[in-house]
Amino acid sequence: MSAAVTPAVDPDLEKAQEYAAKLLLLSEGSVNKHFDPFEDIDWDNPDFAADAGEERWILPESADTVARHPWYQALSEEQKIAVGKYRQANIAKVGLQFESILISGMVIHNFGLPNGSPEFRYCSHEMIEEHNHTLMFQEMVNRIGLDVPGMGPLVSKFKYLGAPVAAWFPNLFFMAVLAGEEPIDHIQKQILRSGEDVHPIMRGVMAIHVAEEARHISFAHEFLKNHVPEAKPAQKFVLSLAMPLVMWILGRAIVTPPRSFFTEFGIPDEVRKELFFGSKEAKRVFSDYFCDVRALAKDIGLMNPVAKAFWKALGIDGPSTRYRSEPLRAASKVA
């Protein structure tokens, strides 16, 4: 009697099944734990009024280079509050603009997916959540009552790129998704973990955003882990250089206020440069936003010697994390 032979497992099928299982888990998470900004934030609570406890709009030192700069610290309390309100309102406006671009690209991505694709369901869930985030961010801006622009006039032109990039270069599109999501997620987590007394509007918005954004970032990571290895060597090399460039361009666009912010508050040019470009701290803070992305680049084979040098040339090299959202204090010990 011949010995039983274990049938060979098709590695491609196994990989597809694992990917589908991960996306199903994320989709079920969207069903089982989701938020409605008009039900889960008590907007009409008197304590949520923008002028209630205004000192809570003073920028948190835990996550904002502006708050730690001597220029800001030398301001009167009234001036600190005015700057803080404008900055937080503008960050919310940038967030909703970025998520609108993300939605436009994801719609196009979903349009061409085959029947049965696990990406279709998850992306649909994510777009619903992102639509809610745009409502939430705009309500925050409206409640603060400042006519902030969000992105600067040049950066706002990215709104025309979301759909075509998603259609023709999906790997590049989901890199761009991470370039926008990682810095905002990083900043908001730092504030929430610090325990600093921030305005309840801001705390409520951040808590919802961080909870749901964890799934969105996980999906972008899983998408790239699944699709980048399928690319041809030349395509992977191009992607290895595109990844740090996209992080640098979009990351700057997300975290740097528009020129109107500096004009509004008479911030000197030398202070502006120190805040976001010139000082060692500003460079380190910006680089730290991408610890998880650098780990992903290594994991999917995009951290070759040329790419590594490019990350360094852009000033966004540094340690990578052992697992996603690893606290920076621990991550900094990992080369």
From TrEMBL:
Any GO molecular function: oxidoreductase activity
Coiled-coil residue windows: none
InterPro entries referenced in this protein's UniProt entry, alphabetically: AurF/CmlI, Ferritin-like_SF, RNR-like
Pfam entry (one): AurF
SUPFAM superfamilies in alphabetical order: Ferritin-like
Domain of life, per lineage: Bacteria
Gene3D superfamilies: Ribonucleotide Reductase, subunit A
Protein's name according to its UniProt entry: Diiron oxygenase
Native organism taxonomy: Bacteria, Bacillati, Actinomycetota, Actinomycetes, Mycobacteriales
